[in-house]
Amino acid sequence: MKCKLIVWVILMAAIYSCSNETIAPVSSFSLNGDTISTLKVGTFNEFRVTNNSINADSVLWDLGDGRTSKENEFLVSYPKSGTYTLKLIAKNSNGSFRTTSKKIVVLDRVLKRIEISAVYWDPTNTTQGWPTTNSNVDIYFQIQQFTDKTMDPIGIYPKCPVLYTSTIVKNISNQTYRPKDPITFYPDQKFIINKALVHNPYYGESNGYLFSVMAKDTDGKIYCLANSAFVGEAFGFQRDNVTENSFTIIGGAVGTYFKLVGIFE
Asked: Is pLDDT of 9 > 50?
């Protein structure tokens, strides 16, 4: 009888211990619906973060750059390149918690070349600021930061800071069409494209890029044949793919078209 009592006490103690044992949460999350441990993205590229934790009553995210969140699911992007540790802390009501993390590799867009596939101007049209003759011109490409809408003359923005000016390609004729053999410029220094600044500067946020195809006649006078502030033509990212390590930006107006091509670094 005494032995049965001892066994019963031990059994009850075991049951009581199990009933009061804290069940630890399992911390888990996905990136764009994938369980990968490392994600590569470009600066300002959004991706989805989803909490998949088990036995957790609350979560705390540490984005690795000073930002935090308590949402279960949200979109996030990083404005600066670098490698970040994205961490999830899953916690339950008993105070038990578990942590898991993944690497986010954020890459810059580096401009590698600029292509101009077509050049056109109408010498009889004085409203566009184009050359007034059909004589050949020298062509170059310019990138400015659009900070002021003042034009002087038409199509040229002298108060906007110049960020990049290409070399000059001489003796280009009107109505040039070279889709398979474009006029090509290669930057002599590393130029990083900020995705947040690629928009039509008249309709987007301030301080966007101003991409311009420029011309110089035999007298040295400067003209703008097309730029990203012109209205009515497609402009923006045609491709922006980290997996393929490639991005392209297209633009142009009224017969003059350009393309910026680069990679992620």
From this structure: no
